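Submission checklist for the structure archive. All mandatory fields must be present; incomplete records are returned to the submitter.

[x] Identifier: GDT1 family protein
[x] Organism: Roseofilum reptotaenium AO1-A
[x] Residue count: 99
[x] Sequence attached
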Amino acid sequence: MDWQLLSLSFAAVFLSELGDKSQVAAIALSGTSRSPRAVFLGTATALLLASFLGVMVGEGTAAILPTKLLKAIAALGFAIMAVRLLWPQEDIPQDFDSD
């Protein structure tokens, strides 16, 4: 096992997940719960399961589809998200007047 790669991956994911919404929810639940240990175990289990499912689906998709097609689909998805974020929405008021 490549320990340097393992530690680098762990550090990158750990730092990027520090401000995650699930962490904020876990803190809020444990602060108001009578059993913070149960909240921790439930949160940790959910994170592990979500990560496991993501790896399994990603591995299966990578085994079925060619790399260039996956990159093209990802690029198209990000481009669509960018256009939707930058495109003005008609149903959202642009100015908020507080009286």
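[x] Structure attached
Curator remark: The chain has one domain: 3-86. The chain has four helices and no strands.
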